[in-house]
Amino acid sequence: MIKNLLFAVLTFFTFNSFATPVTYTVTKGVTTNVTCNVGDTLKFYGTIASAYGVSINSSVVIAPHVVNSPFYIGYYVVVSGDNSFTINASVSWSGTITVNVATSLNEKNASANITLFPNPVINVLQVSVLNKANLMVYTPTGQVVITTLLEAGANEVDVSKLASGIYYVKVGDVVSKLVKE
User: Considering only CA atoms, which of 154, 82, 152, 88 is closest in space to residue 117?
Assistant: First the structure.
C-alpha cells in the first residue's frame, strides 16, 4: 500500500515537472528569436524610456504606453503556435517566437497512436486513433473552431468551412500543426 502510494506521488511529480512554466525576457534591439513551450511567459523590455507596445502576429497584445526605468513593457502568456512579434516605439523591433507544444512522456508515447492526413488539407481531415478521444481544432490565437468526439479507428473531420491558414489540432493531450489550403 505505502509502496503504491509512493510510486503514485513520484510519478505525479515526475510527469508534472515537464510542464513547469518558464519566463523568457525579450529585449527591444537585442532579442530576435525565442523558443519556448506552451504555457511559458514572455516578459518584454525596452532599452530607453519611451512609449512601447507589443504586437504578436499583427495583433496588439500590449497597448502602447509610456515606460520608464527599468523599461519594462509587460507580459504576454504564450498559448500556442508560431508567432512573429514586434516591439513598437520610435523604431520597431521584430522577431519570431517559436512555441513548442509542451510534452510529457505520456504525450510523446500517445502521439505514436494518432495519425492525421492529409496535411496540408483541403476539405476532409482523416484522423485515426486507437481509442475514443476528443478532437479540437483551434487558431494560433487559441480560438476553438471545431470540436468533435472521435471513435476508435478511422474518422473524417470536415474542415471545408475553415479559412486557409495554420491551425492546431488537439487530440487528447497531443497537439499537431495543421495547414488548411
Answer: 154
